[in-house]
Amino acid sequence: MLSFNGSIPLSVDFDRPEDYFIFLFHIIFATSAVLLAGSVAIAISSTKSLRRQNRFIFMLNTSISDTLVGFSVYYLGLFDVQEGFPSRNGTYYILPSLLGINVITFFFAQFDRYVAVCHPFFYERYIVQPVAVGACVYSWVHSYSILLALNVVPISVATKLRSVTLMGLQVVVIIKVIMTIKLYVIARYQLGRDPPSADKENKKESLRIIVLVVITFLTLWCPSFVNIIVKQQTFRGVSFRNEATNLFAIMARFNALTTPAVYIWGSPALREALKNTVWGRVCPKRKRR
To answer: Which residues 6+ apart lie within 8 Å of 64 measured at CB?
Structure first.
């Protein structure tokens, strides 16, 4: 393989036409994810009215994670990197673990929307902003605490711990599917009986966004998840030369682009914030004489 800096070779050899496509795809994808997710993170963090709402706190957390995923593709997609056992130029799962943060955040966001719609009085009293912030902080602490444990314990213990982690992740995925169905039923029936109001529209908007985001996330992420389980249980699965050619990993990382895109599509308030804090400043309109 060709080497960019003399130590870590590039992900492709550039001896086939598809090699150029793979390399260019990762550059475009990484840049697009950083710009789109980064814009959403900047817009939410710069707009006080959005920061005061729990649903935008969760959006901010996933957007920060997606921005970092975009940056990670500059390494995982452009260089010859293989995570796992055996690892080759790997990051000890530091970069792939960013997707785990989104899994936990989406779980808390679904629970937040469920309580907001089904138990509004309890939600207003107890699910305050510090609770949402604490849930987001927990998603980072939980993901990287497990990662730290996997990297410091012996390989035999790490293998068992990883198996337990995968089992717990399966339970979370099942709960997420059930919650998604439940939220869809709520959005279709319960909110339909409520009288028209601004609060009703906000709840419908937030439910629509979180349901679509979770469905998209699971659709793109589950093939990689299933392949990992098959490899752990049967030692077969599908193997790829490196992370740049790993189709399942590429699909999982593609959530860094689809998730902020769904946020922008589904939230007029976020679009307005983007216009005022990011896009409007980068591309200001010329004043007519």
So the answer is: 37, 41
Instruction: Please report the pLDDT score of residue 60 as a whole number.
Output: 96
Residue 56 has pLDDT above 90, yes or no: yes
Neighbouring residues of 273: CB distance < 8 A, sequence distance ≥ 6: 43, 44, 46, 47, 50
- Please state, in angstroms and rounded to a whole number, the distance separating the CA atoms of residues 132 and 144: 19
- Residue 194 reports pLDDT greater than 90: no
- Residue of 224, 208, 262, 258 lying closest to 69 (CA atoms): 258
How far is residue 255 from each of residues 11, 40, 70, 129, 220, measured CA to CA in Å? Answer: 21, 14, 10, 26, 7
Confidence class for position 28, pLDDT limits 50, 70, 90: very high
Contact status, residue 225 vs residue 177, Cβ threshold 8 Å: no
Cβ contact 33:114 at 8 Å: no
Say whether 10 sits in a helix, a strand or coil.
strand
Q: Quick one: which of 103, 28, 24, 107 has its CA closest to 65?
A: 103
Written as one string, the DSSP assignment of 138-156 is HHHHHHHHHHHHHHHS-HH
What is the model's pLDDT at position 76?
93
Q: How far is CA 279 from CA 60, 283, 285, in A?
A: 17, 6, 10
Give the Å distances, CA to CA, from 61 to 5, 37, 105, 243.
33, 10, 7, 25
